[in-house]
Design a protein that fits this description.
361 residues, mainly alpha, five-stranded mixed sheet, 15 helices, 5 strands
Length: 361
């Protein structure tokens, strides 16, 4: 990168950051330098996922089992009390192994960036709330700048698996399969609102595609798909005895290439409690997202109609407040930034209510 004119500004910024870190004397700082000339990663070792893995690997070799790992991003802002608040959450919630911290993107004043991040937050919060409403054990948002975990738990799951994108999602999912994930913290984090192509999917790429009018990868999924998942959850005791088929079970049969996706679970687990846990490990957060993506038909129902149905089904009282959304001419593409901000804030408030009373166990 030092020889690439397009990357030299980033290299210089990294050099400035290293110098800043080396000047800190108030507390101990360990610098892992993979950005100075000649020290950059090559080949398959690349991307933010590998960077997070390198840091976590070092922590696991130099920490005590009761220590905490906090994952933060350089361009994310935190309150002065953030570190203390996370430590207090883990002290209070002794059963959680990890924490998915609440987040809130601050607006920038750049209309294109603000519209894109608001639309992306609406997608994410709609998704989380629906999973929460159906009782999914994967109702969390994985942001690399907004997660924390106990060292003992991270050791137990073998550390972080490097990914070109989505390493934070897979990391939290592994931790969720190991134990309980907390959702509430007194202090939220404020990730940067910026266009970025340094990963293949996530906030930055979503904003870039969204600013170009392409939200197909981040749709508002229809309510009936979440209802199908809920019906499947409620039928778990029945599946422990014999398999019944619906869209979700057929999807599982296809993706796992098993005629009866529950037969291996019944063979290996003799009681309902362990069968249920195995079911949720099989139909995990990744498989839920795959089910929604493969069964969603954007031509059949628009994002706007799906969002109205979501509000009418779960929050009918909001009709008198978010009035523009219930106008059948409403469009996410043409709505003002103020309206999108009102929608985001409503969803944020509902999500915080859910987080404050929930832990994924």
């Amino acid at each position: 990168w030092w020889e690439d004119p397009r990357k030299q500004e980033a290299c210089r910024h990294n050099a400035d950051s290293l110098e800043l870190l080396r000047r800190i004397s108030e507390f101990q700082v360990k610098v892992i330098d993979h950005s100075s000339r000649g020290l950059g990663w090559k080949g398959k070792k690349l991307g933010v996922g590998y960077a997070r893995k390198a840091v976590i690997d070092h922590i696991l070799h130099s920490s005590e089992r009761d220590d905490l790992i906090l994952s933060m991003d350089a361009d994310t802002t935190f309150s002065d009390n953030y570190l203390r608040s996370v430590a207090e959450t883990f002290r209070r919630e002794k059963n959680i192994v990890a924490l998915a911290v609440p987040y809130y993107h601050k607006l920038t004043g750049d209309p294109a960036a603000d519209r894109a991040i608001l639309r992306y937050e609406i997608y994410m919060r709609h998704y989380l709330l629906n999973l929460g409403l159906i009782g999914s054990p994967y109702a969390f948002t994985a942001l690399g700048s907004a997660m924390a975990a106990r060292v003992s738990a991270v050791r137990a799951i073998g550390g972080m698996t490097p990914k070109l994108s989505g390493e934070d999602f897979y990391f939290l999912q592994k931790l969720r399969k190991f134990g309980s994930v907390g959702l509430w913290n007194e202090e939220p984090v404020h990730p940067a609102t910026r266009f970025s192509d340094r990963v293949f999917f996530g906030t930055g790429p979503a904003m870039i595609k969204g600013a170009e009018g392409d939200w197909l990868s981040y749709p508002i999924y229809p309510q009936h798909l979440f209802k199908n998942l809920e019906v499947t959850y409620k039928a778990i005791p029945q599946y422990f005895q014999a398999t019944g088929y619906n869209d979700v079970v057929r999807f599982m049969s296809e993706i796992f290439r098993e005629e009866d996706p529950f037969q291996p679970l019944r063979s290996n687990h003799v009681d309902l409690e362990h069968f249920t846990r195995a079911f949720h490990e099989k139909l995990d957060g990744l498989r839920i997202l795959q089910y929604l993506k493969t069964h969603h038909d954007p031509k059949r129902n628009s994002d706007e109609n799906n969002f109205r149905e979501f509000l009418e089904s779960n929050f009918p009282f909001i009709k008198n407040t978010l009035t523009p959304v219930f106008d059948h001419d409403f469009s996410f593409d043409t709505a003002s930034t103020a309206i999108l901000s009102d929608i985001r804030d409503f969803l944020f408030d509902r999500e915080m209510e859910f987080r404050s009373t929930s832990a994924l166990r």
